[in-house]
Every structure is written in C-alpha cells, then in structure tokens.
C-alpha cells in the first residue's frame, strides 16, 4: 500500500528543533514536508505610528496577546526613543507571553499578569480586577476587536494601537509548486495563496486549515476543505494530519494510484 499524497507544504516556518510532530509524520508515512510561510509581519515605521496620535507614556498598562506584539511594542518604543515607565503594568494572554517579556523588562509579579487558560474571557476577568489602569493594546492591522469591545462594555478605557502589519510573502514566478497538500493557519495565508497564484486550481490538491476563520476563508475562496482542526478528536493540526494520512493509507493502494 502506498499513499497518493507524496509532498506537503505547511505554511509556517520550519520548526527549530528536530522533535516536531511534523518530522515524525514525514518519517512514519514517507511523505516530504516543506515549510514556507505564506505571510510575514512588518513593523510600522515611527512616522506611520505617529499618525495614530497615540502617546505611549500616557498609558499605565499594556495588553499583550502574542509574543509578536511584545517584540513590536518595544521595538517601536526604541525607535521613538520612548523610555517605558518602570511602573508600567503588563497583562498577557498566556504565561508563555509573560515569561517572554523577560527579554525586555524585569519580571515582577506586581507588574506582569497573565491569564490561567489562554482564553480571552480569562484575560478580561483579570483586567477587570484593575479597573483604574489606562490600557494600550498593541495589534496588527488585521486583528479582532473582541478584547477592546469587552473592556468598553465594562467601561474600562482601552486603546488599540496598530504597531505591525501582516503582508503576503511573494513566490517567484519560476518557483515549483507541485504539492499534493497545502496546510494553512490563517485567513491571510489563504489570501496570499490566491494573490501569488491567481490561476490556482485545486483539482486533486488537498487543503488543510487550522481554525474556523481560516476554514471559512478557504471556502469563501472557492476551495475544497479536506482537513479541518481543531476538533475534539484532533486538537492540533498535526493530529488532524496524521488521522487523515492514516485513513488515506488504508484507502490508497496500487489500484488507486494514477
């Protein structure tokens, strides 16, 4: 028995360690997996940021939803020659983001807070316990407003500051694109696919998506969705991918290979 799927493209950077589940899947099922981000993040220039008329020292607390936001916040402060006040408080979506802050500031429990579950509601409940702070939310040009809207409803001031943007990665015209499966993790990745390959025809190429918004973007683009995660049975994309390949291995055989 042999898989009809031979070559996969995962639209993320290649894992830095050799312990990634993707490498285990490649070895177990005899498939080639390439890693290539379809999107990249660019920092706003100081000139672009100033157009928002936001004065960072006017705020007493910063909300971080990703490590990318941490990097761009402190990068922009450095470019603007802003000294972040020692009294500034930081509210993080997860403990991992809070720990990452040590790259830029001294970790103090009275200064850095993080949600226990990584969910938005948990972060909001944490922020509500500090209603007197004036909050700044560093964000990408493409973002959800659920945090700022939730805080507005609770009459807690929060200003969203666009500090970086998501742009499409460019593929060269003569670059080979001979994949049996493409795996995406954001709607922007789907947009990048359609921008780079406007004549793209899915035909027998399988499409895998992580997250409901990514799946919706794929369907809206007229693509057929073959793998979707997370699900109760497959909480990660690697779990969903392995389930799919295992099923295909059971179904594919010499009689199905064309």
TrEMBL record:
Matching Gene3D superfamilies: 3.40.50.10090
Any idea which GO molecular function terms this record carries? uroporphyrinogen-III synthase activity
Name the Pfam families on file: HEM4
GO CC aspect terms:
cytosol
Q: Which organism is it from?
A: Tannerella sp. oral taxon BU063 isolate Cell 6/7/9
Superkingdom of the source species: Bacteria
Q: Which GO terms describe its biological process?
A: uroporphyrinogen III biosynthetic process
> What name does this protein carry?
Uroporphyrinogen-III synthase
Query: Domain Tetrapyrrole biosynthesis uroporphyrinogen III synthase: where?
Result: 26-238
């Amino acid at each position: 028995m042999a898989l009809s799927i031979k070559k996969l493209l995962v639209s993320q950077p290649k894992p830095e360690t050799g312990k990634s589940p993707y490498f285990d899947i490649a070895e177990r099922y005899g498939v080639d997996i390439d890693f290539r981000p379809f999107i990249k993040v660019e920092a706003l220039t100081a000139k672009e940021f100033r157009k928002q008329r936001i004065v960072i020292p006017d705020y007493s607390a910063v909300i971080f939803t990703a490590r990318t936001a941490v990097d761009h916040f402190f990068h922009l402060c450095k470019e603007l020659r802003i000294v972040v006040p020692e009294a500034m408080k930081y509210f993080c979506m997860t403990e991992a983001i809070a720990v990452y802050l040590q790259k830029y500031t001294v970790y103090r429990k009275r200064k850095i807070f993080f949600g226990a579950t990584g969910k938005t509601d948990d972060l909001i409940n944490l922020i509500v316990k500090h209603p007197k702070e004036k909050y700044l939310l560093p964000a990408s040009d493409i973002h959800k407003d659920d945090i700022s809207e939730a805080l507005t409803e609770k009459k807690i001031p929060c200003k969203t500051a666009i500090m970086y943007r998501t742009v499409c990665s460019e593929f060269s015209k003569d670059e080979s694109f001979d994949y049996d499966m493409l795996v995406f993790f954001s709607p922007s990745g789907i947009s990048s696919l359609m921008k780079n390959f406007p004549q793209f025809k899915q035909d027998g190429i399988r499409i895998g998506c992580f997250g409901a918004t990514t799946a919706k973007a794929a369907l809206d683009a007229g693509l057929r969705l073959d793998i979707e995660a997370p699900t109760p049975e497959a909480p990660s994309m690697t779990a969903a991918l392995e389930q799919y390949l295992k099923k295909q291995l059971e179904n594919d055989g010499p009689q199905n290979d064309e």
